[in-house]
Amino acid sequence: MRVVTKTARICGVGASMAFLFLAPAGSPQVKDDRHDAYVRAHISWALYHETGHAIQDFTADRFVMTAQEREDHADKIAAFLMLPKRGKVEEFQFYYDAAIDLYMDTDPPDPNHVYAPSRVRAERMLCMLYGAFPDSPWTGDAQELKNRSDQACIDEYAAFREETVELLGFARDVTSIDEPQFIDPRLMAAEPRHQQAYDYLETSDILLDLAIDVEEWLPGLQVSEKKFQIVAQECPGYDGFRYSWDQSAVVACYSAVQRCMNRPGHLIAMVDAPDEETSDGEEDAAFDEDETGFDEEEFFED
Question: Is 58 in contact with 226 (CB distance < 8 Å)?
Fold first, then answer.
């Protein structure tokens, strides 16, 4: 394994950004805990983006959106759903892992899609994070990298939050009529060459976390006449994550999962709390969990 490092200001420190180039002949594998965190964040971001398309499908908004608008909106939905909900440092780290993966991405654009450039997508994520938590000690790097004014991000987050709460309001209506059923993710049979991807998804909680978030934040998807699904499967001729309009399913293709496991990871340092020390002299969080920008109990308030 060859490790190349670059320096960038991440998470409040001049952190060493490590790019892991795994041997091509090696089998896909998660190298350590930080690489596992990167893989989880990368896959989760893709799945939440596809869940954004599911929302467009179930609300019929996809019929009034252009292709570019659908992709941009799905990005915002994904960023919104991945925001730290309880103010835990692990949640901020998870969000940064996904955002910096996009920020540092050098892959050429997919000609079959109309995504914004990766860095623009990352800047939107970081802008939303800062807009949701402008006073948090964990968002200093988001503030530096977002490429928007502080007030613009605060205003855009507030407007998108209001719009999204209204958009997802159908969830309360339908669940008051019918009892939602938990959506169990399904892993279909994998080809031998993708067995590592199958095993990784089976032993991790990535798909289950998505199902739990659907239950908590998007219960309308559980009782709609269109049966929403979360599926991992073989995707002949396609190497990615997608939303199947025909199946009403968020699909994780094994080839894409396996590629993520073997892809160079932009492994940022763990989030360090700024300017606070514990009794042991180690930096710790100056974070008040009661003052986050995301009020879980009032998300669907009347």
Answer: yes
